[in-house]
């Protein structure tokens, strides 16, 4: 034996893995080819890791063969083997990597897997590719020897509740001198994957651009390489077709959709590097993870370094692909990645190029740009808040739902300005439907003014900063004072309401303030309202009400008191003026003005029971009961 511990140990799977395997074994997928792509991709990662570690420790490569991946079908035994001579795994790594899934997305994956009619593509998105092998195998044996180690271990599972781990036999140890061998005992309905033409078809479709040779070892004849094993990003654009790019995207991003945008170029000059980037057309599961981790891989002279180099700003984290530098040192450390001035220049240049490419796509191919915006618009808008240098460009790229339509650009909004209009108006809330019925829109609607309706959580943040586009300031309809008097009205009915008598402003405000006390910071006559009785607004100097609501949910920031604006022409406000100051009716009506404004904002009254009692009392009074 080659290990000091030959006893067989049985361990249970992590709960999420057991549930995942149950779904896999019971064939939730109509398309099972994915398993081979995922195992080959894992083998490629193992070779990448060894090549990188060998920069500091060349002895890890030893005198063995060049790094490669082998696929070995055995029809007699009914097994398919995928072997690599990469970094390999020691005992604890086998347990950690194959017995648990230490990712926050696991539960979300299982949930989506249950919901999906066909889960194709979810495996690659969620990083649980090894387990896809249980779709085609009723038993899997993994034999692994970590580079530089003498011990060899086997991991065995039949997809049940657990797995066994033990020291490898002499035969297995002799076969695996470094790296990992995965032996799939195929189910009867998966024996087609023992056919050479099937294996070649899948590799050609999904793994042709893997950088390491993939050898098919037939039962008869000599082993032969079945992939091109070339760095596609280093080839000329004139050599490549749209299908080449699609295959490269699907392999690099572990995706099944088509890329909505492809960016391929080589930078020459002070620094030389090749770039191949893709914008997906569908949203990945981890888009809104708190760490906002990017997925662009850094290579140096075709040697994989890391996929954690933050090569693009957080608001471009949906971009997938490769940046391959000719100048960075191969042994670049994590600290150097963060502080290297050359890499900082590459980051800046690549981000600028991506934004420029998105601008070009929006102009020349609106259909594909729409796919990107639908999936990633909320992420791109993070850049308006974070990236002052590119804010104007990102605002130009942004598409908005407005009171006039969907996917409207600010350029279109400005082109449709009303006479004497000098500002772009917007309203922030938690849903488009609620925003469309918001009373703060009334004065703008009466004048035919187009208003941006912003319902993404990030909208509350970027609008908190003074912003303008093409010299036109962006103005909130729910914050600060508003004066639209210079813009002519288009609503004749609303114009007629100007003849309706107004309540006495000073007297009415005084009695409402007295009734509400400390519940509001101020009471004002509204220029926003035409038909509603009241609304709540924020002071021009503080946070917007929507931003304050988001921060309070996260226990951040202090809650400020709103300003209550009242419509002096509304009968309910007039009734307050006519009632006797300090009476129960004045208190009830004043509180009702506040509480209905809170409800229209999606909030609950401070005391729902008192609100219900108050409303019942006023209704009964109106009915004469």
Can you describe this structure?
The protein is an alpha+beta fold. It is built from 23 helices and 23 strands. The strands form four sheets. The protein has a nine-stranded mixed β-sheet with strand order 1-6-5-4-7-3-2-8-9. Helix 10 (341-364) packs across helix 11 (366-380) and helix 22 packs across helix 23.
Entry keywords:
9-stranded mixed beta sheet, 37% helix, alpha+beta, 625 residues, 23 helices, single chain, 6-stranded mixed beta sheet
Tell me, what's the shape?
Answer: elongated
Contiguous helical run count: 23
Q: What's the arrangement of strands in the largest beta sheet? A: 1-6-5-4-7-3-2-8-9
Strand content: 15-25%
Kindly report how far apart the N and C termini lie. Answer: 95 Å
How many strands, which pairing sense, and closed or not: the largest β-sheet?
9 strands, mixed
Q: Give the structural class.
A: alpha+beta
Radius of gyration: 32 Å
Number of strands: 23
Q: Roughly what percent helix?
A: 25-40%
Uncertain regions: pLDDT < 50 for 5+ in a row?
A: 102-106, 117-127
Q: What is the overall pLDDT average?
A: 86
């Amino acid at each position: 034996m080659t290990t000091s511990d030959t006893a067989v140990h049985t361990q249970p799977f992590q709960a999420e893995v057991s549930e995942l395997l149950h779904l896999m074994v019971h064939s939730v997928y109509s398309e099972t080819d994915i398993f081979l792509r995922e195992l080959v991709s894992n083998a490629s990662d193992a070779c990448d890791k060894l090549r990188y570690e060998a920069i500091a420790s060349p002895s890890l490569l030893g005198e063995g063969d060049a790094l490669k991946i082998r696929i070995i079908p055995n029809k007699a035994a009914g097994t398919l083997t995928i072997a690599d001579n990469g970094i390999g795994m020691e005992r604890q790594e086998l347990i950690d990597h194959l017995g648990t899934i230490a990712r926050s997305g696991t539960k979300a994956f299982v949930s989506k897997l249950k919901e999906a009619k066909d889960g194709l593509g979810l495996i690659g998105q969620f990083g649980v590719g090894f387990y896809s092998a249980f779709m085609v195998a009723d038993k899997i044996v993994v034999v692994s020897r970590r580079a530089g180690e003498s011990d060899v271990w086997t991991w065995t599972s039949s997809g049940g509740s657990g797995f066994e781990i033990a020291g490898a036999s002499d035969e297995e140890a002799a076969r695996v001198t470094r790296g990992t061998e995965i032996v799939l005992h195929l189910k009867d309905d998966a024996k087609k994957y023992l056919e050479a033409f099937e294996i070649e078809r899948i590799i050609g479709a999904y793994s042709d651009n893997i950088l390491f040779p993939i050898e098919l070892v037939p039962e008869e004849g000599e082993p032969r390489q079945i992939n091109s094993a070339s760095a596609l990003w280093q080839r000329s654009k004139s050599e490549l077709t749209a299908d080449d790019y699609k295959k490269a995207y699907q392999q690099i991003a572990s995706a099944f959709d088509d890329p909505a945008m492809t960016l391929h170029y080589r930078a020459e000059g002070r620094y030389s590097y090749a770039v191949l980037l893709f914008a997906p057309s569908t949203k990945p599961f981890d888009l809104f993870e708190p760490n906002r981790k990017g997925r662009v891989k850094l290579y140096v002279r075709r040697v994989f370094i890391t996929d954690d180099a933050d090569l693009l700003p957080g608001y471009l984290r949906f971009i997938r692909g490769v940046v391959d530098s000719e100048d960075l040192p191969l042994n670049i450390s994590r600290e150097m990645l963060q502080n290297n001035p050359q890499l900082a220049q590459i980051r800046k240049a690549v981000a600028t190029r991506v934004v420029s490419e998105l601008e070009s796509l929006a102009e020349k191919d609106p259909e594909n740009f729409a796919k990107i915006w639908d999936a990633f618009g909320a992420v791109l808008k993070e850049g308006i808040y974070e990236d002052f240098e590119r804010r104007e460009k990102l605002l130009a790229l942004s598409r908005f739902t407005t009171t006039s339509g969907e996917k409207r650009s600010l350029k279109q909004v400005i082109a449709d300005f009303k006479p004497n209009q000098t500002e772009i108006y917007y309203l922030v809330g938690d849903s488009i439907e609620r925003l469309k019925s918001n009373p703060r829109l009334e004065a703008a609607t009466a004048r035919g003014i187009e208003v941006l309706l912003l319902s993404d959580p990030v909208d509350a943040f970027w609008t908190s900063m003074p912003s303008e586009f093409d010299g036109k300031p962006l103005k909130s309809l729910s914050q600060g004072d508003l004066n639209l008097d210079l813009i002519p009205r288009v609503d004749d009915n609303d114009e007629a309401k100007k003849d309706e008598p107004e309540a006495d402003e000073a007297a009415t405000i005084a009695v409402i303030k007295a009734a509400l006390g400390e519940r509001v910071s101020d009471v004002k006559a509204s220029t926003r309202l035409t038909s509603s009785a009241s609304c709540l607004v924020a002071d021009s100097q503080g946070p917007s009400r929507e931003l304050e609501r988001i921060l309070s949910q996260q226990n951040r920031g202090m809650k400020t008191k709103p300003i209550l604006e009242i419509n002096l022409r509304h009968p309910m406000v007039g009734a307050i003026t006519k009632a006797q100051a300090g009476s129960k009716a004045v208190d009830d009506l004043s509180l009702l003005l506040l509480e209905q404004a809170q409800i229209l904002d999606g909030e609950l009254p401070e005391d729902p029971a008192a609100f219900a009692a108050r409303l019942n009392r006023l209704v009964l009074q109106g009915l004469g009961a």
